[in-house]
Task: inverse folding
């Protein structure tokens, strides 16, 4: 691989990591909000988040 290609791949990886971080922050904030409501079991919430987090958009 050339240095330019490696640098481009590193930028792509960094952007992916940033998106994952933002998604985790969003999930954690939703857990705090939904724990106040309490109308879903924790297992159901985990299943919903897992489906959304691992979607192939």
Result:
């Amino acid at each position: 691989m050339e240095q330019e290609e490696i640098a481009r791949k590193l930028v792509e990886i960094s952007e992916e990591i940033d998106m994952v971080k933002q998604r985790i922050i969003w999930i954690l904030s939703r857990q705090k909000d939904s724990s106040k409501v309490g109308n879903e079991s924790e297992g159901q919430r985990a299943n919903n988040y897992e489906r959304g987090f691992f979607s192939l958009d």
